[in-house]
Amino acid sequence: MEEQELPYTLINVIGGLGGIYEDHVEFLEKHLKLIPMKDFLENKETLRHKIQAVFVWMHKPVINRELLQTLPNLKVIVNSGAGIDHFDLKLIFSFGVKLANTPLAVTNATADLGMTLMLASARRIVEGHQISVSPDTKHFRADWLGEEVTGATLGIIGMGTIGYKVAQRAKAFEMKILYHNRNRRKEADEQAVGAHYCHKMEELLQQSDFVMLVVNLTPQTHKLIGEKELKLMKPTATLINICRGQVVDQDALVNALQNGVIKAAALDVTYPEPLPRDHPLLQLKNCIITPHIGSATSQTRFLMMRNMVESVLAAVQGLPVPNEVQG
Description:
Strand content: 5-15%
CATH topology of the largest domain: Rossmann fold
CATH architecture of the largest domain: 3-Layer(aba) Sandwich
Largest sheet: 7 strands, parallel
Number of helices: 13
CATH class of the largest domain: Alpha Beta
Strand order of the largest sheet: 8-7-6-9-10-11-12
Number of strands: 12
Helix content: 25-40%
């Protein structure tokens, strides 16, 4: 493409805490004409008819009715990551605008983090590090023990692409794999990883040593895990959440962790993010929290960006849009 033909693409900002990565800009500018929000607001009447795409990186810019009404020639919104719960899909589609995300790009990194959290919690890695570097440590206790992952039972709630990637990794740890999903996977898929389907989530909760949440956030999965579900879990079990914080009733989780209803939790997601600094989850030794880093590797973030560019180019050329979200 010649430079003048590059699709005008609205972004939030380059650099900073939530901006497009500066080392992505060279690639992006080969394919897109980037319009930062500040420039757009200063030259709205000139630019509003030229914008054909909005590049939503880490939930910014926010897509609302006012913005959609301002961009009469908008063809596509592309989103970093797999989750789309921050979009009003009905609103977007009512303007005839397409939406695309990057579900395949994030699968390996997110599955890796799920395994990382499981291992770190089981072997008490965070506590162990704190003991090892503490100036008060004079010796290492021989009775400071964790739990075995190899041979344990892993229950995966949400056996989509990421959940299946987790199962593939868990198989290498010789784990017994249970899963609950809206739809049962093909028998060949189950056999490949040795996974057993639980028609009822309650069955999975009662049997699992580790329960990993890998579902999309929908009205049906909001607070999917609450007081009742936590009480069904083994008192020796660990809950791992790598999807969305709202899938878990956090008040119920605090109570369960404080009172020995379950042994531990390992969370890459909470609500809100970050938690208030006085939140009780932050005070619990049996809870590991990471800052929503499922896709946060340099390789995955670059792949996400490339996928988003491909979706923009397809949309403005009238071609089928890769990873298009269906209404």
